[in-house]
Amino acid sequence: MIRIMRKSPPNTRSAAKEASHERIVDAAARAIRRSGYDGTGVADIMKEAGLTHGAFYAHFASREAMLAEAADRAGAESNAVAASVIAAVPPEQALQALMQVYLSKEHLASIETGCPISALGSEMPRQSPEVRYAATRRIKEMVDLIARQYPDWGQPAAHERALVTVATMVGTLTLARAVNDPALSDALCSASLRSLTPPKPAAKD
Fold first, then answer.
1. Do residues 102 and 169 make contact, with C-beta atoms less than 8 angstroms apart?
2. What domains are there in the chain, each with its CATH number?
3. pTM score of the predicted model
4. pLDDT digits over 13-25, tens only?
């Protein structure tokens, strides 16, 4: 008896490959924040994604290509969370709400799913150009998102304030995670929040 082998339709194979690709990138985006770029190995990522090591090169030309996509995905996820926080409150409260969420104890403890800039910033100078390009793109996106919350958005002063705000938030979170003193960690976050919060206008007589 001759058995006729039926091939899967091209669109089915394409959808399956795309789904596998997404699992790999998702796993890598978590892994780089959890273990750093140097601590993220192809074999471990493929295992976490439920795929064989040998299937890796059907999706990526190199480990650096995977890391670049992971950096882009991690940055996109972080910026999406920031955008959702901003969208959930009145415009005049958006920036304060974002800073409070970013410097919260919950975000402090969520390195694997949190902001990749604070988790990976110190490693960036040693990464490949494609990884740095992907990360830089998302950092610029974050700066622009914050600049849009200022009344004078579009002016150089608003962009400069956004740069200072991002640098302060990221630097604070990095230090707060680095120390092993919970009181100091809390103090760092509280001090930065006070420093970044604009003073309330004086009441009129």
1. yes
2. 63-196 (1.10.357.10)
3. 0.85
4. 788 888 999 999 9
